[in-house]
Amino acid sequence: KGRLGLDQFRLLRRLGSGDIGNVYLCQIRNPVVGLPQCFYAMKVVDREALAIRKKLQRAEMEKEILGMLDHPFLPTLYAEFDASHYSCLVMEFCPGGDLHAARQRQPGKRFSISSAKFYAAETLLALEYLHMMGVVYRDLKPENVLVREDGHIMLSDFDLSLKCDVVPKLIRHKPDHPEDSEKNERDSTPSCAIPLQPVFSCFTKKKKATVTTTITTQVDVQDQYDPELVAEPINARSKSFVGTHEYLAPEVISGQGHGSAVDWWTFGVLLYELLYGRTPFKGENNERTLINILKQPLSFPRIGVSSSKEYEEMVKVQDLISKLLVKNPKKRIGSLKGSVEIKRHEFFKGVNWALIRSVRPPEVPRDLQKVRSTRTILPKLSKKERDAPYQIPHHFDYF
């Protein structure tokens, strides 16, 4: 027993590099005899270098957010410690890579509709939880959607995330009638009665309990949906220009200030890229891409479908993407009631949200046992470097 430190880990190879640090594949040096040797992902950031670049706050925010999370599609922070001027975060290793690499392996470098729906549904649940915790993700892209050993997803990289207060609400409301659908899209705020007795939210790990308010509408019981939990941080506001160019929302580019609706824009771009193999507004350079995002109408490339059912699914997903990629954030689906609106869309009809982890993923990475059996090809460091105590390889570039 004792406090973990860098000298307890053996760094095997670098998995990836980001704006504020590197991620390494690692193992514990002296595991308990009889227990399987596990792989971990360790994110290492240089605090001194970040301080010079005035990005230290981003690393602190990521550590704080990771410490809050408790969700099957989000990372578990196993340990965090400092080593000299480095900060280290130890998390789960995802042997399946990311959705960008997975898409490259697909026929035509794009996912089938059913596969895209699966990954989009799990990503939606991860975003739903983040918003419930008052976290606006702001960096959704295929490279940040990792694939676990069992084939299910895990979002990564929270250094661009925005944290704010949110008050979850339970809403009971009347289903939309066809003649009211257009009106309800413009004004989806329910007519509220006096709130019932507040209850404490169960989504309060490692933070002060938040209050959940139950709101009812004055309608007949037989006309009601089941109660829905709405926890959208609609008051979150930032003017930071953050994100990846092809995924930036119009309100981020214009600098008018943005909130949680940026995550629903990036969710639409992600779904588009999974299906069509490219992002919807990509230009010949970054400047042209930003202009396209602001001014170019959304269009869909023609792709062949093999059945009438697949055609119907394509129509549904294009309708959802069109509602997600609305340039005015106030009119974007999800901007007021978050994931509740998106989960009710026809494209996700039939998805068992509660049991989605029981669904077999489109691809399941090979067993870790096979990775272990070929461990001789994994290390990219010399034996001297691997066995050296309390040292980070000097020849690795951190930024």
TrEMBL record:
GO terms for biological process: auxin-activated signaling pathway; cotyledon development. Its EC number is 2.7.11.1. InterPro entries: Kinase-like_dom_sf (IPR011009), Prot_kinase_dom (IPR000719), Ser/Thr_kinase_AS (IPR008271). Signal peptide: none annotated. Residues 9-348 form the Protein kinase domain. It comes from the Eukaryota. Gene3D superfamilies: Phosphorylase Kinase, domain 1 (3.30.200.20), Transferase(Phosphotransferase) domain 1 (1.10.510.10). GO terms for molecular function: ATP binding; protein serine/threonine kinase activity. It catalyses: L-threonyl-[protein] + ATP = O-phospho-L-threonyl-[protein] + ADP + H(+); L-seryl-[protein] + ATP = O-phospho-L-seryl-[protein] + ADP + H(+). It is an enzyme of class 2 (transferase). Keywords: ATP-binding, Auxin signaling pathway, Developmental protein, Kinase, Nucleotide-binding, Serine/threonine-protein kinase, Transferase. Belongs to the protein kinase superfamily. AGC Ser/Thr protein kinase family. PANTHER family: FLIPPASE KINASE 1-RELATED. This is non-specific serine/threonine protein kinase. It comes from Davidia involucrata.
